[in-house]
Amino acid sequence: VYFPDVEKAEWLNKIMQQMWPYITNYVKTVIYEKVQGSVQSSSTLLSNFNFTEINLGCTAPRVAGLKVYDNSLTRRNEIVMDIQIVYDSECNCGVSVNRLQAGISNFSVRGLLRVEFHPLIEQMPLVGAVSLSFVNDPCIDFNLTELANLFDLPGFNHLLRGAISDGVCGMMVLPDKYVIKLHPDVDISRIRFPLPQGVIRIHVIEARKLEEKDKKILGFGGGSDPYVTVKVGQQHKFTTSIIKNNVNPRWNEVFDALVHDVPTTQIQFALFDDDGALNKSDNLGMVSIPVKSVFELGIIDEWVQLSDASTGAIHIRLEFYELSEDPADLIEVLEHSNSDEKIYSSLLNIYIDGAQNLPDSCESSYDASPQLTIMMPGRESFKTQTASHTCNPVWEESFNCLVSNPNLDNVSFKISNQHGTKQNTLGHLKFSLGQLLKAKEMTIEQPFALKSSGPTSVLNARFCLRILKLKSQSKSPDKSSFLLESLSSAVENENPGCAESLEGSDVGSSLSRSSASANFGLFLALKKNASNGTNSVLGLNTTSSSGRTPSVASEISNIGEISNLRRRLHAKSPNQPNDVMTDNDLGRLKLTIRYSKKRLVVLVLMAENLIACDEDTSDPYVRIYIIPDKRTRKKTKVVKRDLSPSVGSKFDIPKKEVKQKKLHVSVKNQTGFLSSEKVLMGQVIIDLTELDLLQPNTEWY
């Protein structure tokens, strides 16, 4: 899959390969001098820890693609780029602990690496610091050697690889960053722990026409017990309540999630049928929406069709809140809030640098091992790491929490000793958030004197308050472009470096995965000829950029189907003459076409207001092929009992065939195996020679 805003960087790969021997020597020095000593001092059990071998191999990491963000998504004093990194090495690293040796080999990493140059300054080297982080969890693989082979068992292997992956994610996956300071006057704490870019408020309202997963027994039972899981990026996951025996559930639940990276963060909604604690929940469908769409529109309030499901839609409302430094915005937020609902109005960021001059431990000759606990009424508390045997702990940790009313809320701190049998208190502090509303930029950074502690004991901290201000809504939000982007961006951000071409495959139940490389939307409609006012042949449109023209009868594959379609349409509108047709008599269908790296990709999104072929409904599906060559005929899945179905199908056309072909799309109704009834519900022909394939073409037909 090719993404036009991602550039190749072979020149960078050549430079990296030439510099790799020097980079490996530098990494060895850092590991021996810093990492090894840090591990040895972390625990008495690891005092004999040593690296026996460090060989990073001769193959340098490769850059599969590079993207630099423009000013619309970044600040003026920074440069942000995403690098698709691929590292498949023959490295061999070994360690020794108390004469026991273990190691790993053939280490590989694949992922999207975010590189930020921030802040840009006027003194050399023109950049204050460089930060590195993975946008999503990287794919990590390796082989175990020596004693580590004992972990190469089904149970232990999974635990070990999970622990290593979690360790990497805890250090270098957004919002965590590895920062390299380049200028002495730069405060890297603000770079390592930046404020979120905003807050997404997610309203899970209701769903309709969900699948019935529970089996019926003697005609009784059936239905589903649906609930929704909402995942925002890698940091937030929420779950709604379970609605028993209802395929049209209503939740009306609200969740707030911090957004640290607007361009790449996805909001994933997954619906499940609850089968009890001992059974795995059945899948009812899913939806993935990019935060970027919410950021651009401000508010999205839509019914969205579920993918990976034969039927169903979910009603969601998404609101993007910016972080304001103006205390006056708080008054407006509180005025519009409902006192019966617990709605957050502000974001509080707490940066804990450390503490100084804490009292000694009372139980032993060792210094205390202090840990800081942060508490707010009605909230889950936060805890820092434990600093071993020191009266001057350095934590350098940041915490974010949402606040209902800063005028009334307080935050409490307690430092306790974790060494010994009793966790005695070394000091405490209470801070009123109302002070921040009067401070410059609503930020206070200073040493705070601790109570019930030593005479000079202080806590070094920074408090920053921001008001949640609803982003102004786009004046003319394009619903269709939002729906298309919600589908097409899901896979692009999920694994942009490892995507594969899916030549000639149907999307079907995997619409959310394949739609990243498909930017085509198609809708079926009957249109009058603009030039002479005459109607096109019933059920068939030939379209071009210059206008829609009626097709000739020779292009219709089955005249019997057309006659049958005329009769059904006349039954629908008996007062309308048979030879007179108006726009949208047969419903409509939406397609978007885009040329992407040696192929044309077609995605059928949905149809609406189709005619009924049975008593009051139909079982529609869409068939796509290129004419005059019909060997590439493809068919989507069948959507049962729905006249406004959500349909997904991917269709690829080689570059050399695009300019000489026409795209034939027909909507049909599924009938029984032995049925002789004609199934045509409508069809359209698109002349590909008239389309500008360098740009996405989205239109209703």
From TrEMBL:
<dbReference type="InterPro" id="IPR000008">
    <property type="entry name" value="C2_dom"/>
</dbReference>
<dbReference type="GO" id="GO:0061817">
    <property type="term" value="P:endoplasmic reticulum-plasma membrane tethering"/>
</dbReference>
<feature type="domain" description="C2">
    <location>
        <begin position="585"/>
        <end position="701"/>
    </location>
</feature>
<dbReference type="Pfam" id="PF00168">
    <property type="entry name" value="C2"/>
</dbReference>
<dbReference type="GO" id="GO:0008429">
    <property type="term" value="F:phosphatidylethanolamine binding"/>
</dbReference>
<dbReference type="GO" id="GO:0035091">
    <property type="term" value="F:phosphatidylinositol binding"/>
</dbReference>
<dbReference type="InterPro" id="IPR039010">
    <property type="entry name" value="Synaptotagmin_SMP"/>
</dbReference>
<feature type="domain" description="C2">
    <location>
        <begin position="176"/>
        <end position="304"/>
    </location>
</feature>
<keyword id="KW-0479">Metal-binding</keyword>
<dbReference type="InterPro" id="IPR035892">
    <property type="entry name" value="C2_domain_sf"/>
</dbReference>
<dbReference type="GO" id="GO:0005886">
    <property type="term" value="C:plasma membrane"/>
</dbReference>
<feature type="domain" description="C2">
    <location>
        <begin position="327"/>
        <end position="448"/>
    </location>
</feature>
<keyword id="KW-0472">Membrane</keyword>
<dbReference type="InterPro" id="IPR037733">
    <property type="entry name" value="Ext_Synaptotagmin_C2A"/>
</dbReference>
<keyword id="KW-0106">Calcium</keyword>
<dbReference type="InterPro" id="IPR031468">
    <property type="entry name" value="SMP_LBD"/>
</dbReference>
<dbReference type="GO" id="GO:0005509">
    <property type="term" value="F:calcium ion binding"/>
</dbReference>
<keyword id="KW-0256">Endoplasmic reticulum</keyword>
<keyword id="KW-0812">Transmembrane</keyword>
<dbReference type="InterPro" id="IPR051634">
    <property type="entry name" value="Extended_Synaptotagmin"/>
</dbReference>
<comment type="similarity">
    <text>Belongs to the extended synaptotagmin family.</text>
</comment>
<keyword id="KW-0813">Transport</keyword>
<dbReference type="GO" id="GO:0006869">
    <property type="term" value="P:lipid transport"/>
</dbReference>
<dbReference type="Pfam" id="PF17047">
    <property type="entry name" value="SMP_LBD"/>
</dbReference>
<dbReference type="GO" id="GO:0031210">
    <property type="term" value="F:phosphatidylcholine binding"/>
</dbReference>
<protein>
    <recommendedName>
        <fullName>Extended synaptotagmin-2</fullName>
    </recommendedName>
</protein>
<keyword id="KW-1133">Transmembrane helix</keyword>
<dbReference type="GO" id="GO:0005789">
    <property type="term" value="C:endoplasmic reticulum membrane"/>
</dbReference>
<keyword id="KW-0445">Lipid transport</keyword>
<keyword id="KW-0677">Repeat</keyword>
<keyword id="KW-0446">Lipid-binding</keyword>
<feature type="domain" description="SMP-LTD">
    <location>
        <begin position="5"/>
        <end position="183"/>
    </location>
</feature>
<keyword id="KW-1003">Cell membrane</keyword>
<dbReference type="GO" id="GO:0005544">
    <property type="term" value="F:calcium-dependent phospholipid binding"/>
</dbReference>
